[in-house]
Amino acid sequence: MRKHRPQQPEPLPDGTDTTALASVPDAGEHLDAEPTAVSNAAPVAQPGTSRVAGWRRVFSGNRSLWVTTGAATACLIAGLLVGRFVISPADAAANATAPEAGYITVPVEFGTLTNDVTMRGQVGYADSTEVKLSAAEGGDTAVVTGAVPKTGDKLDAGDIALEVAGRPVFVLPGKLPAYRTLRVGSSGPDVKQLKQALAAEGIPVAVSKKFDTATAKAVRTLYLRAGYTAPVDSSASEQVKTARESLRQADSALAQARKALSAANSGPSAVTRKEANNAVAEASRALKAARATDPPDALEIARLTDELALAKLRRKEALKKADTTAEKESLSSAKQQRADAVKQLATAKKAALPYLPASEVLYLTQLPRRVDEVKVERGSVISGPVMNVSGAKLELSGSASAADTKLLEVGQEAFFELPDGEQHRAVIAKIEAGKSDRSTIEFTPDPLTDEQTEQLKGSNVRLTIAVGSSEGEVLSVPLAALTAGPGGEARVEVVEGDPRDKERARTRLVVVRTGLAAEGYVEVTPLTGALAKADLVVVGA
Q1: Could you tell me if 439 and 483 are in contact, meaning their C-beta atoms sit under 8 angstroms apart?
Q2: In terms of pTM, does the model score above 0.85?
Q3: What stretches of 375-437 adopt beta strand conformation (E)?
Q4: 205 Cβ partners below 8 Å, 6+ apart?
Q5: Which candidate, 469, 463, 485, places its Cα nearest to that of 519?
Q6: Which of 461, 439, 457 is nearest to 448 (CA)?
Q7: Strands 361-364 and 167-173
């Protein structure tokens, strides 16, 4: 900085030395600032002018301080003004004067009054089941060869669920699983279940617990209807042939034994009988002739007498009944052999009758069933579950409190909203009381399209069930509008005029008969006085 040479001050008129005045700093001047020399050309400052310059230096040197001070002052003034004119809600409420209370009224409604029960319902296929098949007989590899269903297909009684190793797996209704092969001679509840299923398919068979020849024939019919041959034992035909030959031989032996016994029982022949009689007659004549000689020969008579006695004895032996013990024993043995041959043939024939392997039947409840998932494909080897199935019909179920359950009954209509917003009807199919105070309500929806079914599956919907409805359009008021008269009659108070002006508004009482109550409203019919739609009735004051 360039420095000016100081100018020699001149004394003031009163004799004061200006040099001393120049050395005294003005108010607001920084003491540590370097003094500025006065130019020779600058005039000497007057006392008034020096004070103004000093205040300027005060303001210019502390500008930020003065700006802050000014802002604080402005905020203070604004706060005072706001506090003077702005009033809090509490102060306003405290200073306000409460208006005079009027009547609290609602208009009379006119329309159909309904009482509804609402609940949430779950949509889905019930009774999901994992399907497993019994192992094939003989330990054969279970290879899927055909009839593989697709997801969404339905399985009904008599259908083929799968074809395994060229053999069908029939779907039949039943709770018991197929755990053994059923053939002629089997008996038990599983046999009865099979016969019931066959009868339900229109195949004639008497329902019992015994698998008989008629049952085997019914099984053959089941297979033939599906285009398959019923299973039979591979060696059955040869066994039948052998049994028939044994029976033929037994019949021949029996015939011979009967003939021998018949011959033994018939006695001596006519020739034997004639010869024996002739021998006796000849001996008798010879004796008679000997006795007639004169003189008679005693020795000859004695000899002829002995010959006659011997002829008679021989005739007796020849004509007596023969012993048929041996023939009878032969006949009995022949009969037993034939009986054994008959049994053998019957057993062989039974073995040749159709039977039902456990691996060729699948019992399912609640048919038809929907295929949810298929876990095998054609050519794959079965090593576990083959598919998952569930109820074929889309089911809808919810729960209701004990109070609401009392208002419900089987056959009542319910409505729920489809994904497109359209209302759809369902009917209460079953009401099942639970262990708690809630009951399970099962519904049967009206038929749905495949697209609607897929959209609804697994969703939760709101069900509305109308449990009461007025007969047409009626007048209704809130329950709070009803009061009791001296005789217990129901009545409402109707306001005429502005209900807010309690002093000038007039009211009149109308005795009514109540009807259906629903959602806080009750049906009313005026008995004395007039009551119309939109009339204002008092519910409070």
Answers
A1: no
A2: no
A3: 387-391, 394-401, 413-417, 423-433
A4: 195, 198, 199, 214, 215, 218
A5: 469
A6: 457
A7: parallel
- pLDDT per residue as tens digits for the range 117-176: 899 999 988 777 899 998 876 666 789 999 999 988 999 999 999 999 999 999 999 999
Share of the chain above pLDDT 70, in %: 81
Distance between CA atoms of 398 and 355, rounded to whole angstroms? Answer: 45
As a whole number of angstroms, the distance between CA 119 and CA 524 comes to 28
Identify whether the C-beta of residue 319 lies closer than 8 Å to the C-beta of residue 276.
yes
Set out the domains of the chain in order of their start, with CATH numbers.
133-232+353-384 (1.10.101.10), 392-469 (2.40.30.170), 472-540 (2.40.420)
Cβ–Cβ under 8 Å, residues 216 and 191: no
* CA dihedral over 51, 54, 59, 65, signed as positive or negative: negative
Here the tokens at position 481 are 């509008």
**DSSP secondary structure string, 151-201?**
TT-EE-TT-EEEEETTEEEEEEE-SS---S-B-TT-BSHHHHHHHHHHHHT
Looking at residues 176-204, what average pLDDT do you find? 95
Alpha helices by DSSP H, listed for 428-482, are 450-456
For 446-470, how does the pLDDT look when each residue is reduced to its tens digit (9 = 90+)?
A: 998 888 888 888 899 999 998 888 8
Please compute, for residue 340, the number of CA atoms within 13 A of its CA located in the half-sphere on the CB side: 10
Q: In the chain, what is the greatest distance between 2 CA atoms, to the nearest angstrom? A: 251
CB 494 within 8 A of CB 507: yes
Pairing assessment for the beta strands 474-478 and 109-111 based on DSSP bridges: antiparallel
Q: What is the DSSP string of 320-381?
A: SPP--HHHHHHHHHHHHHHHHHHHHHHHHHHHTS--B-GGGEEEESSSSEEEEEE---TTPB
Decide: helix, strand or coil at residue 232.
coil
3-state secondary structure of 4: coil
Nearest-10 crossing angle of helices 189-200, 213-226? 50
pLDDT digits (tens, 9 = 90+) for 501-515: 888 889 999 999 998
Length of the chain: 541
pLDDT, residue 78, reads: 66
Task: Return the top range by mean pLDDT from 10-14, 45-49, 59-63.
Answer: 59-63
Contact yes or no for 408/432 (Cβ under 8 A):
no
Q: Could you tell me the two tokens for 367?
A: 């048919």
Residue 402 CB: number of other CB atoms within 10 A? Answer: 12
